[in-house]
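Dear H.,

Thanks for agreeing to be a second pair of eyes. The structure we're designing against is below in token form, covering all 183 positions.
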């Protein structure tokens, strides 16, 4: 069985959080799949397509351990997209999952997390596996069925360190490999 090396997701850089009592980190979320969606409240594609899709994902996967995280990524119209405006937007669109404001960096129009992930714009989404690696990343909005299938696959994956799962070196932790393995 070949082991595909996937990049570890870079850490989030957030200046302010909404819909969560404390800041989130991807490191602390290891063991859970994460659906990270990047949006701007003045982005037509985000408002018309991505936000409704996130609302559907929140409903469909509510009983799972999927962590949905929004990232308000402002790279234009900075003055119009204040935290007060974002709070009203989240309330009006009834987004329940945590949302962070991507950290602005002086001298750059591109916020830190957007740059770290290499996001091309909004809307964008990143599916992060239980082991913290990037499983899928896309600019734009994909069909619900494709997104749902990817999320279901990530949810079905065994947590890191589970019996029969390879460790960081590709060796099986309990001396056995998952079915179909070559060890």
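And this is the sequence the design step returned. I haven't edited it by hand at all.
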């Amino acid at each position: 069985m070949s082991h595909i090396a996937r990049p570890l997701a870079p850490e989030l850089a957030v200046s302010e959080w909404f819909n969560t009592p404390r800041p989130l980190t991807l490191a602390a979320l290891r063991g859970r799949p994460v659906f990270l969606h990047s949006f701007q409240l003045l982005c037509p594609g985000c408002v018309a397509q991505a936000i409704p899709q996130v609302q559907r994902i929140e409903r469909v996967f509510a009983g799972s351990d999927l962590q949905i995280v929004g990232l308000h990524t402002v790279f234009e119209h900075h003055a119009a997209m204040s935290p007060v405006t974002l709070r009203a937007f989240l309330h009006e669109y009834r987004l329940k999952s945590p949302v962070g404001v991507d950290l602005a960096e002086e001298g750059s129009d591109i916020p830190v997390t957007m740059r770290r992930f290499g996001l091309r714009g909004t809307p964008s989404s990143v599916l992060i596996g239980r082991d913290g690696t990037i499983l899928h990343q896309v600019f734009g909005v994909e069909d619900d069925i494709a997104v749902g299938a990817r999320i279901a696959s990530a949810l079905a994956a065994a947590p890191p360190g589970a019996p029969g799962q390879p460790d960081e070196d590709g060796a099986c932790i309990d001396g056995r490999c998952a079915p179909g393995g070559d060890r």
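Two observations from my side: Residues 160 and 168 are 9 Å apart (CA to CA). Confidence is low (pLDDT under 50) at residues 171-183.

Warmly,
E.
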